[in-house]
Amino acid sequence: MKKLLPFKQAIVALALTFNFTPASAQTLGGGVGNTVVRCTGGQLSSWGLNNYGQVANGSTVSTTSPASVSGLTGVASVVSGDYFILALKSDGTVWAAGRNNYGQLGNGTLVDQTTPVQVTGLTGIVAISAGRHSLALKNDGTVWAWGLNDGGQLGDGTVVNKNTAFQIPGLSSVKAIAAGAGQSLIVKNDGTVWAFGNNDYGCLGLGTTATNTTTPTQISSLSGATDVSCGTYHSMVLKNDSTVWTFGWGSYGQLGNGANTSTSSPVQVTGLTGVVSIKDGEAHSVALKKNQTVYVWGSNISGQIGDGTTVAKNVATLVPGLTGITEIATGGRHVIALKNDGTLWAWGMNYYGNLGDGTTSSTGCGCKPAPQQVTGVCSISSGVNEKSITSADVTLYPNPAQNNLTVKLASMPANETILNITDITGRRIKEINLNSETNLLDISVLNAGIYFYSISNNGKTSAAGKFIKD
């Protein structure tokens, strides 16, 4: 059994590396001991451990309270990996800051950066993911990779690190990506799941722990997938029936099947349905249900399950008292959640101030094992209101919706007005011309889950947000 190190040692233990999975409009990112969020206006706010510049404030001084990231605007999505962050701008470019010893910042060097730098030669990106390596999904369905490649996680048939982004050969029609400590998972438009990289504990889900895989290989036992997530040595898959499947390292119950054993083939998380989003930490797993509640399972050494204890759980466990959640993210041993009123909540490890409350926790578990509100952070748009989503020009209702969604405009513009709907992976679902002030849309064909919308007039976006399909 691989034991977890005390967090006082985690800073020098490169094995404690995790991924925090992506979505097209990922507002929250959690790292080894840091947190980063996307503010309403497209800026970033960041705090916590900053030993490699991952807070992106121009220094390597850690901070326990939210601080603005200067020099970067127009951000659409943000994620955090192993001591570095990636930010996707609305123009399709990717920017990075923090540790760069494997070339994971993608700027052609191995030099750490304390302020964001652009990933060289990368445009048209719709989703990003970060572990010790980086992945990016382009709007043409191709996948690009850079950074650590010791287990073949870059998917090019080699184990040679890369400090610039390159297209992974043979991958197309991809709709979701996930980068872990040493593994990569992708979902194709047909719902199949493909894996490559380090296969410790069977975290590639291929039914064996025998060898690593340096090129994408299909997990034949899985179909109907919509999203994926990777942790240190375990992986998760969300299916279109809203169930969750896991494989890999399971010693702390992070597979959620009622056992504390590892498995190289996918197993279903027991008793968990109605899920719309999944995230992995070092040795814990997190799921957001369509009723806007959060479930966590696995290691609880730092209170990351959020139930007020530090006792591990091998089945999905409801975070008590937390409702109205529209987005989740997880760091190595902490969890962040965004509510539909725009407030931010966090719990778990706080040894480096990564919960953003102005303190550090250095005694006992070094943690805060129940959700607490993060104050002093920038305005964060949840995009979802229990009854409606309203801007100066647009109202969407009902929200959540079932078979029909009404889009109402305050007045009918003279120029063409277009509604775009995408899923959480950035895949475009619908593009609709709005021809009247009140538009009734049939959404019965959509799977249950969270969707993003944007409304543009004369080429300029006038409203954007999220809605839930029940």
In short:
This protein is mainly β and 470 residues long. 1% of the residues lie in helices and 44% in strands.
Number of strands: 36
Number of H/I helices? 1
* DSSP helix fraction: under 10%
Separation, N- and C-terminal Cα atoms: 40 Å
Approximately how much beta-strand content do the residues carry? 35-45%
Unreliable stretches:
5-24, 382-390
The coarse silhouette is globular
Question: Oligomeric status of the shown chains?
Answer: single chain
Number of separate structural domains: 2
The chain-level structural class is: mainly beta
Provide the CATH top-level class of the largest domain: Mainly Beta
Can you put this structure into words, describing what you see?
By secondary structure, this protein is mostly beta strands. It is built from 1 helix and 36 strands. The chain has 2 domains: 16-374, Regulator of chromosome condensation 1/beta-lactamase-inhibitor protein II (Methylamine Dehydrogenase, Chain H, 7 Propeller), CATH 2.130.10.30; 389-469, Immunoglobulin-like (Sandwich). It is 1% helix and 44% strand. The strands form 9 sheets. Strands 1-2-3-4 form a 4-stranded antiparallel beta sheet, with no helix packed on it. A 4-stranded antiparallel beta sheet has the order 5-6-7-8, with no helix packed on it. A hairpin with a 4-residue loop joins β6 (84-89) and β7. The chain starts with 6 loop residues before the first helix and ends with a strand.
